[in-house]
Amino acid sequence: MFLKCLSIKADLFKQLLASYNILHLVVRGQSMFPHLSDGDMVSLRKSVRFRKGSMYLFLNPKTGRQVCHRMIGSHQDCLIMKGDNEHCTQNVPEHLVLGACARSELSAVEFAGKYPHLNRACMPEFMFDKIS
Q: Which residue ranges form the domains of the chain, and what is each CATH number?
């Protein structure tokens, strides 16, 4: 059941990316420090091809949380992911990869000021989930 829920959550993200081409998310945690810090914003884009060294947002198969880490390799149908500030790697099935991440030029405060009409009332709750 848990894996089915992950699949549904992944499909929702992918549908949003298909509609809007880009999503902005706030980073929580230090696993990608110094490249990304707690409170930074990332831009999430649809990814067709996976490249070693690029950052991707994926659903952690064990916890269901969104995680932004760097791809360091691949094995069969899994990507080998690792946080810049972590020692462990993680194998992530390709279907749980939501998109490619890049550090956003906007901070969360600037984003809120630039798009005041985009508030929590008009966006799905999971868009405000914290990513680590």
A: 2-108 (2.10.109.10)
